[in-house]
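Methods — Computational structure assignment.
A single polypeptide chain was analysed. Its primary sequence is given first, followed by the predicted tertiary structure written as structure tokens.
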Amino acid sequence: MREKIDVFLPDLGDEVMHEVTAFLNDDKTVQHVYLMKDKICSTATIKDIDRKADADYVLLCIRPTKILMGQFSLERFLRVAHDTQALMVYSDHYAMENGIKVKHPAISYQIGSVRDDFDFGSLVLIEAQAIHDYVASLEEEKEEYSFAAFYDLRLFISRLGAIFHIDEFLYTEEGLDLRKSGEKQFDYVNPRNRVVQIEMEKACTDHLRKMDALVDTSFYDKPDFEEQNFEYEASVVIPVLNREKTIADAVKSALGQKTTFKYNVIVVNNHSTDDTGIVLNKLKQENLKLIVIEPERTDLGIGGCWNVAVHDDRCGKFAVQLDSDDLYSSPKTLQKIVDAFYRQESAMIIGSYRMCDFELNTLPPGLIDHKEWTEENGCNNALRINGLGAPRAFFTPLIRQICFPNTSYGEDYALGLAFSRRYRIGRIYEELYLCRRWNGNSDAALSVDKVNANNQYKDSLRTMEILARKAVNSGQEDITPDDSFIRFFNRQLDIWEEVRRRYGDLKNVQTRELLPSIIRLQFNPARIVSTGAKTDHKTIEKRPCFLCDKNRPNIQMAKKLDKDFQLLVNPFPILNTHFTIPARRHQPQAIFHHYSEMHRLLHENSHLMIFYNGPKCGASAPDHLHFQAGTMEGIPLLQEWARLSRSMTKLYSVNDEEYLARIDNFIVPVFAIVSIIAESDRRLFEYLYHMLPLHKDETEPMMNIVSWRIENKFVSVVIPREKHRPDCYFSHGEEQVMVSPGAIDMMGLIITPREKDFKKLTAEKAISILRECGISREKMNMICDKLKAEDEEELNMKHQPNVTVGIVSASKIHFILNRPYMAKGTEVNGEQTVEFSEGAILWNGNLYTQLSFHPQSEDANFSLDDVTIGVNFHWERKETQTFLGTLCFIVDSDKICAINELPVEKYLESVISSEMRATSSLEFLKAHAVISRSWLLAQIGRRLAHTDAGNDFFAFTKTDDTLVRWYGRDDHTLFDVCADDHCQRYQGITKETSPQASQAVKATMGQILMDGNEICDARFSKCCGGISEEYKYCWENIRKPYLSAVRDSKDAVDSDSQSFPDLTIESNAEKWIRSAPVSFCNTHDKKILSQVLNDYDQETADFYRWKVSLTQEEIKKLLAEKMNLDLGDIKELVPIERGKSGRISLLKIIGTQRTFTIGKELEIRRALSESHLYSSAFVIDVFDKNKQGVPQRFELLGAGWGHGVGLCQIGAAVMGEKGYSYDQILLHYYQGAGVKRIYK
């Protein structure tokens, strides 16, 4: 082999190094041998190696020790590196310990080998390019380490390629650390090493972040400590095997705890063969708190014994660890641990322990408190170290769900990692526990092979955990989701054998498809209890209510949901997971005041459906208010929902996404309520409720309801009823069919408790039963007619909504919190910076997918630097601007977007102040407040409706010679509106809100423009030029009656008629634009203009009629840069189509090489200006034609400023000065619309 290796060794002095360097210099694979003065753990040393290394590979000695190479060992290193294509290789080795040559095998490297003390031995061979790449990455990150450089290097290498273990003994090293394993294992918690550990933690955290395996603790779930009832608050769990000398001390330590709650001690004696069992039996006779379990299985490790204990019915809410040879350090330990669960809202608590001998004398390193743990990053740093501390305590329902691995080493560490992925781990840093070391102790001194086996296993745990965290961060669901309902359900079945059998029977239950996907039968004999139940008043009065606490069997568990309702597992199930949700107080079945409970339950349990049976619509307990819930599989109505919902007829809409509808293509007519927020859901239901017929002697309209979630939408299907039970239910003999339809039956899954009914029922009979109980088409129509009659009494919003405003987008954003704000649970103030890093938001050294700063007072505000005003317009500039309300940051492609969230009315005060001057007339400002509010609320509704449809910012048609494109305002999917003129100019409180603007907003609060039942898309521009434009000439080809052409003049208002020339005809447009007809917006009154044109807008001198001159070169350059068009020299600009205001919507550009047509108006304005032409209402004059007849200069004479659709701001300001009221102004520009208040 040719020379391929540069060797870097620690400089241990000439006497030690002479022999080694001589040997290496003689080896044909070695190019250079360098002696390093500094330790390899520093960045400076790694950079020095990078500068010197010019061979293909680098051999590093990473320990300050003398090395003796084995036979052809360098060739072997090199060959394996080449053959495996690994970036780094290492091998087993020998060590000289006290003059004896001892084997030191290594373990294989894996994804989870992120411990900073991973034992590679002394020698590693690294591909030189990997080192060069690493050092180059340091230049980008500006990172310098004093202790963690090699650790950071090998983590970097592991992300790039393979690290390979050669299972051969290739060299001998001088043994340096001859301490026992029990002493070495605590180096990472030694306070003297704290500075080193901080660096190691940073390197590990960066590594996990780059692997997308970092846990963001701000998204932790909080445990629900009331999700199940426990007889005991806590249990001390002691697994034991052959500890006759120590078990009595451990048990007495646990039994001696002084607590304010009930607890027990559970010892799992894992088939001890010494006198451990005898000792335990004696202790058990002396104290009833002690529970001794000997498991049936004989293959259990410590983890398996833990599983036996926590799954025992007697286990407490919190399971607390005590090893069989250790002690609690005081009688207050258990109380402190349980208190910490509640105080820290944690799913696991870890305390601190002291190493001691049997006489309780302290052993090095003394108190082990793991203060390296931090609230934000402890869960990530836990992957770098080999232990978490003791004693360890767990919230029992979660252990039952996750379970310990059945091992006798690392089982607690595995649980700690799994818990820390989703839940907070609380810490207690005072001494709680005594860890006793003795000669028979399993951890005192371990062989190399045993240490390797332990490390290999813990590395595998870390591998599994890192992969799991990557999966979670990529959006995959955990195999055991955090669901207290399901844990409650599983526990109930664990302890109630009879009910467990019934649920087991459901897996084999007989079903028949009568009509595919429409009607299905289920033969369920257990349901005879409810199907056959008598629900008349006398019978109900006589029997005890089976939903009341005092009458339920003791074995039936109850979970408190809130102050009004609790959760039970339904003991007679129809569904694979079936709950009953009774009111905690005995009260009649009634929905009106409790419907919102369904929305609340779905908000917290999106995978379930919730259903309600009216008192005479399937409720077997009509005297006790209750809902039911369950899984959604096998329900025809839900399975067919996509098809059914396509043919819904909307009856009333709160907005585009929240509405009441009817469905006529199901077995029976039904209503559907689709909502997003609880308030809309409640109001829509109440609106429908009052329209449903109330039968004689009934307390509420007869109905069934089923509700479920589809992503962020809540769907409730209301099934109006005519009858409780069909006539065939009361028949005799063969005519009888015992079917008592409830919500499930009415949704198409008919339950038959009798086999003969299951077999004989036909599709026709099933349909007739459901239709007999449901309402007829005629009654459905009557209800809908009543709804239409109430249409004038439309639902309104109860409160004003919030608006989200996109302010600025950049890779780095600097801002100042001028008052206290709350972010990630911490109060913050003053200067802050966020920047885009690795696809996330970097703030204060941590990465977040989204970040919000919430104001802690009403006047709290923040200032953002470099906010652009007038994007792509002629007045574009950057300013520092200040805003009220919440500040949110989200990732937008490769940048961070800053979003301001605040109430609509506060937003409008800023908009009106930004758009207009304080000197504006009050009526003009009130008119602008109404249209700004109308446009904003319409925009919010459109954004929600278009989120799933993608970005609608522009639409276009394009051919080889045509591009027609229009730009809408539906471009924003991350927020409702932007802060710039493309939406509405919003500057927060940068400029003081004028008292006039504030008064105008308050005077019109909640008022919007309506076109029938639709909020008007209230467009506006600076100056229409004398006639406003129709919507279709600027955007898509649809007609909006209220956005039609309007003559902007006093005569038009006073006569209430529209008369103006047809400017779609070119000759009329030429005459109109070259003249300056009298119009409201034809004014040079500086007082009026200052109302509309703020400082930077007043730089524009002309607007009603204007002139722009373009040279041949300028127009060609614009077309090349803006449109990527090369048409040769431009010969003509020819209007092909104009709108009613004279604005060009199609413009043909004729060049010497080709002709191209562009549209609509904004595309034309963009193409012929560095920013935007004032409008597309212009005529063209040409000058200075050359010999080929090509003009060298074009002069555009134009009219108006902006698209001209809707309200003309300058015209409206003039109307306000002339004494017109705000509603007169609005109804002039928006013909046929009306003003309506929708909230107060």
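Note: The chain has a mean pLDDT of 89.
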